[in-house]
């Protein structure tokens, strides 16, 4: 199988191309790594290929905040400068000087 590089990086704010939500990437799988049950719950006519990066997002829409798992083909960079509401964002990330989200440094002992 051909190795692919992820288009989006951890800390990047993205939005879904089809559904009205946006979020920040907090993890990346190089290819699909979820359950068959989750996969089969996607209608066949819009089900993405498994052989592409999938992103874990701290996501939000107009009503709520949640964690989403989304294929690369369904995401694009979000140009909206509004801060994300998801309270977990600032547990995982700090905002850099130019506004970018950077993972917090966690020291283990």
From TrEMBL:
Keyword annotations of the record: Stress response
Matching InterPro entries: Clp_protease_adapter_ClpF, Hemimethylated_DNA-bd_dom, Hemimethylated_DNA-bd_sf
Ranges annotated as spanning the membrane: none
Key word rRNA-binding present: no
Example of a GO MF term: DNA binding
Domain Hemimethylated DNA-binding: 5-104
One Pfam family from the record: YccV-like
Protein name per UniProt: Heat shock protein HspQ
Organism: Neorhizobium galegae
Higher taxonomy: Bacteria, Pseudomonadati, Pseudomonadota, Alphaproteobacteria, Hyphomicrobiales
């Amino acid at each position: 199988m051909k190795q692919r590089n992820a288009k989006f990086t951890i800390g990047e704010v993205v939005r879904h191309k089809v559904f009205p939500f946006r979020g920040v990437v907090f993890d990346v799988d190089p290819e699909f790594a979820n359950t068959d049950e989750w996969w089969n719950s996607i209608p066949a006519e819009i089900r993405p290929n498994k052989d592409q990066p999938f992103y874990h997002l701290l996501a939000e829409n107009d009503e709520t905040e949640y964690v989403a798992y989304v294929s690369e083909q369904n995401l694009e960079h979000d140009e909206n400068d509004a801060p994300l509401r998801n309270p977990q964002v600032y547990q995982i990330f700090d905002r850099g000087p130019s506004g970018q989200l950077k993972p917090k440094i966690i020291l283990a002992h």
